[in-house]
Amino acid sequence: MSENADRTTMSTNDFIKGLWKENPVFVQVLGMCPVLAVSNTAENALAMGLATTFVLLMSNVLVSSLRRFIPKQVRIATYILIIATFVTMVDYAIQAISVELHKSLGAFISLIVVNCLILSRAEAFASKNTISRSALDALGMGVGFVFGLVCLGGVREILGNGTIFNISIFPDSFQEWIIMILPAGGFFTLAIWLLVFKTSNLRKA
Amino acid sequence: MNEESLGYIFISASLINNFVLAYFLGICPFLGVSGKMETATKMGGAVTFVMLISSLCAYGIHWLLVLLDAPYLQLISYIVVIASTVQLVEMFIKKMSPALFRALGIFLPLITTNCAILGLALFQTNKEYDLVQSFVFALGAGTGFTLALMLMAGLREQLDFSDTPKVVRGTVITLLIAGILSLTFMGFSGLGS
Amino acid sequence: MNAPQTISQENTGSMKMLQAMVGIGLICALLIVLTYEGTLPRVRYLKEEALQKAIFQVLPGSNESVTFLIDEAGEIIAQPGKNESVNKVYAGYTAEGRLVGVAIEASGKGYADVIKVLYGYDPAAEKVIGFHVLESKETPGLGDKIEKDKSFQENFKKMDVKLGASGLSKEHPIIAVKSGLKQNSWEVDGITGATISSRAVASILEQSTSEWLPLIRKNMDEFKIKQLDE
After folding, report:
1. Which of B1, B16, B127 sits opposite C112 (nearest CB)?
2. How many structural domains compose chain C?
């Protein structure tokens, strides 16, 4: 990107790149643990995606606004501290919204802390850019992450349970592919999505 | 207090509920460093080692937090302690055994963001294991992680000699194999009863 | 790639590092405590509501519940002492104050991980009258039928768990049988494809009822008396 690039294109690009070109799930393959673990239904996937986006946005904004005060030597430690704070907040927020949802996501909410995606955005982007650009970057990456998760969760729920967002879409005679909601199904579905992305990118190239 | 026997905890953590293949914890290193048998073994060893230490630390912190009645500090103190443990271990190994340090090299810092370690600490707290149980749990989880990593590395080394289509090379084929491994490990379910 | 604004802080003093860490630590601590305090009442309310719902489900007809604490010696106590492990049971009453039964939590090893259940026991009829899975990680599509399967739930609507003459042990043990072979009401009609999970549920109930039923009989008066001062 040229340094003289128009500000609007630049900020649009900050947002857009996370959706497709640098999609965190399908292209960067970052933060796979929650992606595979909670994507057995579309609802769980969506909740996890939104929680991660929130943490991503808040930590990017905070890291970016504090970027002049944080000494270089302790930057990773402070990033982890900041991320852990927001994750704890999200954890309690989800509990307050629905105990049921909190139970089905389980320990994986806490594990957002070690999602490499968040730390890598803080380190690679937010620590070097303005607050507004960091926020846009976080939103783009977050939406891309949600998109990836819901793609995965949707396929797994449709095939594995015959429903989408708990709404039955097949006639009763449909035989569920139980394997899809098992851990193995997570690996297979992600592999197939990656394949789709790769082929479409190869075609374009 | 949890009444599970030590043997069951070990089998459960290493085989039935394998961290990588059933809980998807530690997928990043699983996909990243499972290319060669040698590195896979070393990574497995390093992770097991850190798991044992941080499991003990997590037990201590949990005890302290219960005493202080401050459950909301759990996550933040776990992650800080794990990160500093990794740092300390790194410094210690560097001083005591430079050879081992060179061998583990870049893997140690990577372990900080390995979800398997934090996952272990959280699970052992949720399951209310006592000190010995936590230790066995960490040992089992580490063994399971190493086992999965080594199995994968062995398979991928063989794959290098076969003619796989260009698009599936790399992550895609690794994920497919992981899926098959995960199915295989499901056969261990029910071992405990 | 994006015109970076490099920050050069090569020789930062340790004083500044400390300041930054402490400052950020304080902000973080403040945020966490605020959220915790802010959400606590609602979280507590939701958890209680979920438990209440489960209790009323396993004790059909009840719409009021009282929690009883029972210490290791099997005595009902009002306040748990320090370092003392207590167990909780929940007595459910109808609107008129009649004791419907006692809801008991039980857990044990399942096929994949621990299964936690809540079941309702009617001491007058000496029957299990309801069953609800609180927590399980059984195989989706097979083992998790113990949670939803209607005919499996049917097993626990009026399961005979009569105590023997001594009042210390049950007349018949709760056992799982193969699907369709159920003959007596103390048998659990297993789910096809989920034999181990069905067996696990039966053994969890067997263990828990053997332990709890004599205790409940012993404290029967307490459960009834309590309802008067409700």
Report:
1. B16
2. 1
